[in-house]
Amino acid sequence: MLKPWIYLLMASGLEAAWTFSLRKLDLGALKNAIVENPLLSSAVGVQFGYLLLYLGLGGSNIYFLSLSMKTIPMTIAIATWTSVSLILIKMCDIFILKNPTNLSEFFFLTLIITGIVGLKFSAPA
Predict the structure, then answer these.
(1) How do the domains of the chain map onto residue ranges?
(2) Quick check: 47 and 26 in contact, CB under 8 A?
(3) What are the TM regions of this chain, as residue ranges (predicted)?
(4) pLDDT by residue (tens digit) across 57-102?
(5) What pTM was estimated for this model as a whole?
(6) HEC states along the chain?
(7) Residue 17: left if φ>0, alpha if ψ -120 to 50, beta else—which one?
């Protein structure tokens, strides 16, 4: 029964990507682009593309989470999904966005990972 856990990891990765897509999505810029430019202009296309990316990542995230929750108990699935998403977001912050971090953050991330592994091995079937 590894497939539901793979779905859960995919949902977590999509959740992290969806979170970062919020940085690009600007509904005000989309509205301004539509008002100031022809509907088929590149300015509207770029902003509309960010909106589609946001919606697609969010929908895919929920789809894979729902697939995993058909087998994995809901409380364990949600706790794992949230935790793995948080860890992926923090790792992207550190390694891609180069945000500063400290040793205590790594310690607490390790505690989260320990909790996820504990949930995985204590989950029924």
Answers:
(1) 3-122
(2) yes
(3) 40-64, 76-97, 103-123
(4) 999 999 999 999 999 989 889 988 999 999 999 999 989 889 898 9
(5) 0.82
(6) CCHHHHHHHHHHHHHHHHHHHHHHCCHHHHHHHHHHCCCCCHHHHHHHHHHHHHHHHHHHHHHHHHHHCCCCCHHHHHHHHHHHHHHHHHHHHHHCCCCCCCHHHHHHHHHHHHHHHHHHHHCCC
(7) alpha
Distance CA 92, CA 16 (A): 9
- Residues 6 or more apart whose CB falls under 8 angstroms from that of 87 comprise 109, 112, 113
The closest alpha carbon to 48, from 60, 59, 38, 63, belongs to 38
* Cα–Cα dist 106/95, whole Å: 13
Instruction: Using CA atoms of 29, 21, 108, 120 in order, give the dihedral in degrees to the nearest 10.
Output: 150
How close are the terminal C-alpha atoms of the chain, in Å? 7
